[in-house]
Structure formats: C-alpha cells, structure tokens
Amino acid sequence: MQSITILGSTGSVGQATISVVQQHSSKFCVRALVAKNNVSIMTNQCLTICPKYACMIDENAAKMLKSNLIAAGKNDIQVLSGITNACALAMLDDVEMVMSAIVGIAGLKPTFSAIRAGKKILLANKETLITCGKFFMQEAETHNATILPIDSEHNAIFQNLPIKCQKNLGRFPLSKYGISKIVLTASGGVFRKIPQEQLSSVTPEQACTHPNWSMGNKISVDSATMMNKGLEYIEARYLFNAKSNEIQILLHPQSIVHAIVHYTDGNMLAHLAIPDMKIPIAYAMAYPNRMPLKMPSYINTNCLNTLHFAELDYHSYPCLQLAIDANNSGQAATIILNAANEIAVEAFLHKIISFNKIPDIISNVLDVVHFNDPNNIEEILYIDKQARAKTTSLCYVKK
Ligand SMILES: NC(=O)C1=CN([C@@H]2O[C@H](COP(=O)(O)OP(=O)(O)OC[C@H]3O[C@@H](n4cnc5c(N)ncnc54)[C@H](OP(=O)(O)O)[C@@H]3O)[C@@H](O)[C@H]2O)C=CC1
Ligand SMILES: CC(=O)[C@@H](O)[C@H](O)COP(=O)(O)O
Ligand SMILES: [Mn+2]
C-alpha cells in the first residue's frame, strides 16, 4: 500500500487524484490533504476518504473544518492550519508520493519540502518549476526525489522517452538519447476563432470554458490567453533539458494528441488520449508499472480522421511570446512574468480588468521590474513579491 499527500486536494487535479485513488484503494491510501479555504469540499473529502491529516492554509477555515468533522462524529482526523504544517505533511515519513496540485507559486514551499524529503513528486503545479527552474531540478537530484510530470503534454512526452532518460530527467541533453525535437500541442484556447479586437468584452465565465478540458479557473484563463502554453514551454525546457530549437508548439484543436517526440533515427512517437487528467495521474501513480483506469469513454482509431494540426500564429497570442522571451531573458524575468500573470488573471476573474489587458499589464511589469537572477528560494520569493506589488498597482489603479 502506497501513501500519498495531496497538495491542493479540493481543486480540479486534486479531486481527479482522489478519484484515481478510489479506483485503486487496495494500492493507495490518502495520508494527508492540503487546501487553502474551501471548507465544504475538504469536509466531504475528509468524510469520504478519512485521511490522517487535513490542513487548511487559512486558520479560520481549519477551525470550521474541525467543527464540521466533530459534528459528523469524525474525531480521528488531525486538522492543521498554515503553510508550515502543509510543508510538514509533504514530508511525512510514511508518505511515498506527493501530488503537487496547488495553483500558482503558492505551491512552491510545500513542493520543495516534498523534494527535500526525497519523495516521488507528481508534478502538476507548473508555476513552481518555471519560477525555480534549474534550482528545482538540482534540488530533486540532490535529494534523490523522483519527478513525474502530470501536466498532460509533459506526461505525454515523458511516456515517449527512453527509460534511461526518464530516470535522469533533465540531467542530460536530449541529443544524448537520440531525440531531435519535442512537440507540445496547443488547443488554441476557447477564443481561437475570435479576432483579437473582439476580446476586450469576453467574460471570465467565457474564458473559463475550455473547449476540451475541465480545469481550474486560473489555468483555464491561461489556456485562453495561451500563457499556459508559454508556461509549458518553459516547463519543458527545464524538465527535459530542451534547447529552444528542440521545442515546437503545434496547434491541435482537438486535444487528443498531447505530445510528439522526434528521434534522429527517423521515428516520431506521438501520445494520444482523451482529455482527462485521471489518465496522466494514474500513469504517474502506477509508474514504472501501469494500472487499469475505468473511464466513461476510451480513445479509439475512429477519432484519427477528425484530428487537425496547424502551425501556430504567435502574433495572435502575445502572452505566449512574452513567456518565451522571458525564458530567454533569464530566471528573474520568468518569475516576474509568472507573478504578473497570476495577479492579472485574478484581476480579470474579478472583472477589474478586461481580458485583452492581461498581456499589456504583464508586458508593462516586465519593462519596469528588473532583478538579477536569484540564487535561492528566498530571492525567488522576493522577486515574486515585488512583481506582484507592481502588477497590483497597475490592475487596481484608482479610476
Ligand atoms: N486542472 C488541470 O487540468 C491542470 C492543472 N495543472 C496545474 O495544476 C495546478 C492546479 O491546477 P487546478 O487543479 O486546475 O487548480 P484549482 O484552482 O482547481 O485548485 C487549486 C488548489 O490549490 C489550492 N490552493 C489555492 N491557493 C492555495 C494556497 N495559497 N495554499 C494552499 N493551497 C492553495 C486550492 O484550495 P482551495 O480550494 O481551498 O482554494 C485548490 O485545492 C496548477 O498549477 C495548474 O497549472 C496542470 C495541468 C492540468
Ligand atoms: C490538461 C492540461 O495539461 C492543460 O494544460 C491543457 O493542456 C490546456 O490546454 P491548452 O493550453 O492546449 O488549451
Ligand atoms: Mn498542459
């Protein structure tokens, strides 16, 4: 029986993880759940799967959770609060794997705790990797942590890598394994067919309606701006030690082919699956084995004649270019990009700014906030904080 801590259990990926655990309850048990303040979902999760620990970052939320569980006669779950306890639950001696599914750089500290405890990390949270970059991969190597990508495209690439490359993720150039290029597919987002000049009036509800995936709000908006693909480009550079000319982004509206790996011997390996996060999650949990997954529908070859691919028009997606440029500038620029994006997306979701202002604000912040590349987590978080402050002043400027 393998035990798991789920960071971000009440979110889209967190709930999908619990669903996979429930399909294989003889193999896996949930030791700890961590969330921010969604007491109602956390209460239901605690009553359903009975973890040993449940942690809410927000102290009042933890108090409400505790009283809900007592009222339900559930007194054997230890309710904790705060980031320090969340980090401790990512390091528990009797936990083999940690699902990193907190959204945003908020996931950084608990994810690093799991890395430093040498855990098997199911990495969904992309903001931590892209803001910590090489430092993240070095820490994983130093502490012998196993990184298994959960992001669907990166999980797809991982599945098409030679075992030796999987076991030495990011340590050697792709050419060492005979790989010439990795391809990330992109749906183009919910507004793919809408001219840019009409994007000023789209609503948060429209932006959160992804054509193929059911996801949390932040990543859904990132998919609509294509910032998600920009973050995934950066993620792939670090995870797979890929050079910029070894990564291609291919428009694929159906989100069935999640990635392609080109080998120098003329072979091209593609990964296909229906767009359901339980698939990459189950793969990673079972790795290096495989386990069956009960799904409402399965992919089959009937879909092949409906699949379309096209070159990407980068000019239609300024956020994607901002991310690639920030990555080329360095780690500090990537931290600033991510912070500005998190704040700008939040402001859009709260109807403070319009959708088409998101890239403008990020670009403005990148123009005025400059730092040398960081050497440790404290410096990363300091840069993040400064960029957030600047972005907040731009988004919430008094009219
Ligand atoms: N959803 C998807 O299909 C995919 C997601 N990812 C990545 O996985 C991560 C999670 O995404 P998703 O599941 O969609 O996100 P959701 O918004 O659905 O869930 C976010 C989770 O993080 C928790 N959370 C938010 N802020 C904090 C905080 N400050 N401290 C602790 N917990 C916090 C939330 O708790 P609460 O509910 O209490 O607020 C919730 O459990 C993101 O990094 C995303 O980019 C990657 C690929 C696909
Ligand atoms: C499920 C997942 O991995 C998301 O990142 C998804 O891929 C978003 O798709 P697009 O960014 O291609 O719209
Ligand atoms: Mn993805």
Automatic annotation (TrEMBL):
Pathway assigned in UniProt: Isoprenoid biosynthesis; isopentenyl diphosphate biosynthesis via DXP pathway; isopentenyl diphosphate from 1-deoxy-D-xylulose 5-phosphate: step 1/6
Gene3D superfamilies: 1.10.1740.10, NAD(P)-binding Rossmann-like Domain
UniProt xrefs under PANTHER family: 1-DEOXY-D-XYLULOSE 5-PHOSPHATE REDUCTOISOMERASE, 1-DEOXY-D-XYLULOSE 5-PHOSPHATE REDUCTOISOMERASE, CHLOROPLASTIC
EC number: 1.1.1.267
Gene Ontology MF, one: 1-deoxy-D-xylulose-5-phosphate reductoisomerase activity
Name of a matching Pfam family: DXPR_C
Enzyme class, first EC level, given as a word: oxidoreductase
Binding site for NADPH: 10-13, 38, 125, 127, 216
Subunit-level organization: Homodimer.
Superkingdom, taxonomy of origin: Bacteria
Family: Belongs to the DXR family.
Protein name (database record): 1-deoxy-D-xylulose 5-phosphate reductoisomerase
Catalytic activity: 2-C-methyl-D-erythritol 4-phosphate + NADP(+) = 1-deoxy-D-xylulose 5-phosphate + NADPH + H(+)
DXP reductoisomerase C-terminal domain boundaries: 272-389
Binding site for Mn(2+): 151, 153, 232
Cofactor: Mg(2+); Mn(2+)
UniProt domain 1-deoxy-D-xylulose 5-phosphate reductoisomerase N-terminal: residue ranges: 4-133
Coiled coil: none
Keywords tagged on the record: Isoprene biosynthesis, Magnesium, Manganese, Metal-binding, NADP, Oxidoreductase
Organism: Candidatus Blochmannia ocreatus (nom. nud.)
Function description: Catalyzes the NADPH-dependent rearrangement and reduction of 1-deoxy-D-xylulose-5-phosphate (DXP) to 2-C-methyl-D-erythritol 4-phosphate (MEP).
Domain spans labelled 1-deoxy-D-xylulose 5-phosphate reductoisomerase C-terminal: 147-240
Residues binding 1-deoxy-D-xylulose 5-phosphate: 126, 152-153, 187, 210, 223, 228-229, 232
